[in-house]
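Example 3.2
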Amino acid sequence: MIFDTDVFIWAQKGNEKAAKLMENTEERCLSIQTYMELLQSANNKTQHKYVKDFLTSFGFNVLPLTENIGHRASIYIEEYTLASGVRSGDAIIAATAVENNMTLSSSNIKHFKIIKELKLKAFKP
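Structure, written as tokens:
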């Protein structure tokens, strides 16, 4: 399963449901976009280290941005931005899930529900 940035934020805030979801998921992944968003939200090097240590300790696999993911994300922007406001970061995260044939877990369902081929699991904090 691929986790959206918001699920990591819930876990970092101490949400037990987010922590249990991650803990009970066998294959834990995140897109490079989510990885960058997590690092970007850190205020200092200590928080950077915390993010990296968290991902390592739970065995998360960071999935790279490939040419196919970039192409698919650009198609999502063309198809869905005007109708529903899909942003580039969400398009990359969704494309990463689709290209890797994985389910995306997110509490921001409205950001992703328009993408038909995306397998989506709603996370409710």
